[in-house]
Amino acid sequence: MIDTISVAASNLLSPMVLFFALGFAAALARSDLSIPEPIAKAISLYLMLAIGFKGGAGFAGSGISATLLATAAAGIALSFLLPFLTYALARGVARIGPIDAAAVAAHYGSISIVTFVSACEFLHMLDIPFEGYMVAVMALMETPAIVSGLWLARRHLRRPDGAPGGGQVLHEVFLNGSVVLLTGSFVIGAITGDKGMSTIAPFIDAPFKGVLCFFLLDMGLIAANKLHGTRTLSPRLVLFGLLMPLLGGAIGIGLGAGLGLSLGGTALFGVLGASASYIAVPAAIRLALPEANPAIYVTLSLAITFPFNLTLGIPLYLATARWLTGA
Amino acid sequence: MQTHTRRKIEIIVDAPLASRLTALIDQIGATGYTVFQSIGGRGTDGAWREDQLTSTQQKVLIKVIASEQTADILLERLSGELERYSCIIYTSTVEVVRGGKF
Q1: b/e per residue, A211-240, with b = 16+ CB within 10 A?
Q2: Which residues of B touch A35 (CB under 8 A)?
Q3: Residues paired with B61 in a beta bridge
Q4: Inter-chain CB proximity A164 and B50 less than 8 Å
Q5: How far is A157 from chain B (nearest CA, A)?
């Protein structure tokens, strides 16, 4: 127990979380500190490229195994199915309308790359190894949830001209920038392996933590600004935003343990289940489901769930994974 | 100097939905459009700024100049999407120099 608390404390005192807190506090204090959007976008592209490549290079060392295929399948299934649980909770606990609930469901079934990356750094800090292919599992879990969310919404849509080119929407969703970059980098990392890694390590390895800190500073600013500007937050929504990651995390950890993943892999699967997208999915949902209110789904995943996962969630999921796997 | 009267239609809409509207504008047959970025604003849903990482609530401005008939068709098709896309549409009359272009 003491060990868990000290682990949680070391997470809270890590540069990453502290920079997040700095951004959060600065925005709350109404400082005009702001990172231009193109820079933040560039940083998020960098993070995706780097994590994708590192995952691929790590995978090249270990190769395809039955566990990998099973984990990938479980991840895809989780991404498809978690939205249904989310929908039920969003309707029941958060008491939001069906279309908004479907949009929220798509977010929580998907994953947050930055939360995953922060969790990886946390595990590195504690010298806990994890399977390199978890990055690939993460990439696979990004989009199925959107399909489920759209399916959940279809009964409630009143569209005189029918669904706006369903095929076109799916094309945009599955070929969206972050999926292409993540998967592409993973494949390149897998092809070039250690040799490729040593070639571009000065760009994607050494600066990674610092760049992540800079990005989290911006996330803190954005999260606090969202909270300040919102008119749609109710106690029920906040409760949902804290409850849903715990549920998703528990399911992910259970799956990871059941698949026989390492401690690190199980904890990461929990993080994947618990996280909600706030960059890729909001844009996709805004396009595919314009009837849904972005003030709800963006605020929930960005201003409530992400900060919770970053500060308290990650150490909690590790502790739970440890308890469940007996490691 | 001779000028010609045309209609200008301006649409303020969330960035992810702009491509839908521009596709519609192409479909109706307007000769062109221009898309502008914005910095911030406030509406019934709350305030937003351009530095918020996800472009989901960031607004762009689409300007179209067209003939009277095309403008009418465009307005009719677009107002069907008003509620759904939560966009703002307004129109005005302008004088252009090269009438053959619009």
Answers
A1: bbbbbbbbbbbbbbbbbebbebbeeebbeb
A2: 51
A3: B12, B36
A4: no
A5: 10
Query: pTM for the complete prediction?
Result: 0.88
- Decide if B88 contacts B11 (C-beta within 8 A): yes
Which secondary structure element, helix H or strand E, spans residue B85, and what is its range? helix B68-85
Give the CA distances from residue A129 to residues A114, A122, A123, A265, in Å, rounded to whole numbers and listed in that order.
19, 11, 7, 8
Residue identified by tokens 């069906």 is A98
Interface check A232 vs B, CB under 8 A: yes
Tokens standing for residue A3: 């060990």
Asked if the C-beta of A165 comes within 8 angstroms of chain B's C-beta atoms, the answer is: no
Question: Which pair of structure tokens corresponds to residue A294?
Answer: 């972005």
| Residue that the structure tokens 């000028």 belong to | B3
Instruction: Give me A215's structure tokens.
Output: 């990005």
Q: Give the other-Cβ count within 10 Å of A66's Cβ.
A: 9
User: Beta B4-14 vs B59-66: how paired, if at all?
Assistant: antiparallel
Locate all alpha helices (DSSP H) within chain A, ordered by sequence: 2-12, 15-28, 37-62, 66-92, 98-109, 113-125, 134-140, 144-153, 166-174, 177-204, 208-229, 235-259, 263-274, 280-288, 294-299, 306-308, 314-325
In tens, the pLDDT along A243-290 reads 999 999 999 999 999 999 999 999 999 999 999 998 889 888 888 888
Regarding an ipTM greater than 0.85, the answer is no
State the best of B42, B53, B76 to mutate against chain A, taking most chain A CBs within 10 Å. B53
Domains plus CATH for chain A? 2-325 (1.20.1530.20)
Question: What digits encode the pLDDT tens for the residues A104-122?
Answer: 999 999 999 999 999 999 9
